[in-house]
Specification:
The chain has 499 residues and is an alpha+beta fold. It folds into 2 domains: 5-203, Hypothetical Protein Pfu-838710-001 (Beta Barrel); 219-498, CHAD domain, CATH 1.40.20.10. It is built from 16 helices and 9 strands.
């Protein structure tokens, strides 16, 4: 898949009488305005019938008239940024067929809905390259006269200016935009042309958004809020995962784990058969993600903590990379499957209308505390009884229950307004305990792999290096066991304050 380009631009609306001013005379750092060839662009935008892409700030188009030739362009939102920054992906292909690479990247948003042409625009574009010292390009200014077409008929027209950065951020564009505003332009929302052409429907909320809850809301609303948060995380990290982003993969796996944990937390007030079916499918997806994520973690740890041994570990590194590659191939196949799309549709249905029992109709302040106590009761006895000499499996069991307590506190906290802060602190303490036990578990699994490799090799030097690595993993487990009591006491203190 071709690499993406980060697009950073400001948009301004301009009246018909607006004249682009000379931008070299205002101390803006613009020393030259190089006029570029005028373009006539014809764009066809694609979306679902209910505009799932546009409502999520995403556009997919086929455009002719560019200097580089006709192309498909997909623009995706950047997490944590507004629509003035988007990642732009370009694909070559015939106009009749949306490229598979593009449909892959929007699967999380469109799910099972078909993609179709929804808008046609024709744009007359005047352009200037704004240059600083040494003819360095600062930004490209485009003056667009846009016609919205219905077949061959023009149904609407608008004019806008696009100021696109050629640098790493938008800071240099603000003074230039202000100069254009002094000339009569108006700073506009960073809305794609297609959204303006499609009207209010394209500006509506996405299919799933964060849900606010209060203690007086029925517990069912807290269920919805938790499932919505997990689904939002899952969808947001679908494209980065497909593109090979390590953090995106991690966050997508976290989303599957949290959703499964939330279904377990709310089990007493939701339909068990319905929740079990969702949980089984999330386990399948989490397994695919874990097959890639686990080698990622081991490779990163080797790079950061065992760099001195890495040169002698070629065979082990190759094994990890082969495992990672096989896992990624299986993951991508899974993400392209009907099974995954069906799971997304089921999760969306769960957010809109979860199957709940009568208990979920009680106010959150009454229905939720027993669910949190249930998670605590499953963790406390095992943690209290744990000793430094217990088997690794018991530590791992405590880790699983600490994770469930953490996620339960995070899911339930928003519905218990007066205890939300205390529950957030409890979740943080449980997360620290979970991280400690997680590192121990990773070390245990790695140690087993290394010991098997050492038994199978005839190379003394390689076996010696594997042995040194085993020693480090054994030491990591022992260190974790020593640190466990303190981490557990912190969780217990937070629990006493939160209950």
């Amino acid at each position: 898949m071709p690499p993406s380009v980060r697009e950073r631009e400001l948009k301004l609306a301009a009246p018909g009488s607006f004249v682009v001013p000379d931008l070299t005379d205002d101390g803006l750092g613009v020393l030259a305005m190089q006029e570029l060839a005028e373009l006539t662009l014809t764009s066809t935008y694609y979306d679902t019938a209910d505009l799932r892409l546009a409502r999520s700030g995403v556009t997919l188009r086929y455009r002719t008239g560019e200097e580089d030739g006709p192309a498909w362009t997909l623009k995706l939102r950047v997490q944590g940024r507004d629509a003035s920054e988007r990642d732009e992906h370009t694909f070559r292909g015939p106009p009749e067929v949306v490229p598979t690479e593009a449909t892959d990247l929007v699967t999380g948003l469109v799910r099972s809905a078909p993609i179709q042409a929804v808008a046609s625009l024709e744009t007359r574009r005047k352009r200037w390259m704004l240059c600083g010292s040494d003819d360095q390009a600062l930004a490209e200014l485009a003056d667009d006269q846009v016609s919205v077409l219905d077949g061959s008929r023009v149904v609407a027209r608008f004019r806008e200016l696009e100021l696109e950065s050629r640098g790493p951020d938008l800071s240099a564009l603000r003074p230039i935009a202000n100069r254009l505003r002094r000339g009569g332009a108006v700073l506009a929302e960073p809305v794609p042309k297609a959204v303006r052409a499609l009207g209010p429907r394209a500006s509506a909320e996405p299919d799933v958004t964060p849900i606010a809850v209060s203690p007086d809301d029925p517990a069912a609303r807290t269920v919805q809020a938790a499932l919505a948060a997990g689904l939002i995380r899952l969808i947001a990290n679908d494209p980065p995962t497909r593109l090979g982003d390590v953090e995106g993969l991690h966050q997508m796996r976290v989303a599957t784990r949290r959703l499964r944990s939330d279904l377990r937390t709310f089990r007493p007030i939701i339909d068990r058969s319905w929740a079990s079916g969702l949980s089984d499918e999330l386990r399948w997806l989490g397994g695919l993600l874990g097959a890639v994520r686990d080698p990622d973690v081991h490779l990163e740890r080797l790079r950061t903590e065992d760099a001195d041994l890495v040169p002698a570990l070629g065979a082990y590194l190759e094994q990890l990379r082969n495992r990672q590659a096989a896992g990624r191939e299986a993951l991508l196949a899974g993400l392209r499957s009907e099974r995954y799309v069906t799971l997304l549709d089921r999760l969306m249905d769960a957010v809109r209308d979860p199957l709940v029992s009568n208990g979920a109709r009680r106010p959150s302040r009454k229905a939720l505390p027993p669910l949190l106590k249930r998670a605590w009761r499953r963790l406390e006895p095992q943690s209290v009884a744990l000793t430094p000499d217990d088997p690794d499996e018991r530590y791992h069991a405590v880790r699983i229950r600490a994770k469930r307590l953490r996620y339960a506190a995070e899911a339930i906290g928003p519905g218990l307004e007066d205890r939300a802060v205390a529950l957030a602190r409890l979740a943080m303490a449980a997360a620290s305990l979970q991280d400690l036990l997680g590192a121990m578990h990773d070390a245990v699994l790695t140690r087993a792999d290394l010991e098997a490799l050492a038994r199978d090799t005839n190379d003394p030097a390689y076996a010696f290096t594997l042995g040194r690595l085993v020693e480090r993993r054994v030491a990591a487990v022992q260190d974790g066991r020593k640190r466990f009591p303190r981490a557990w006491r912190r969780v217990a203190r937070r629990w006493r304050k939160a209950r």
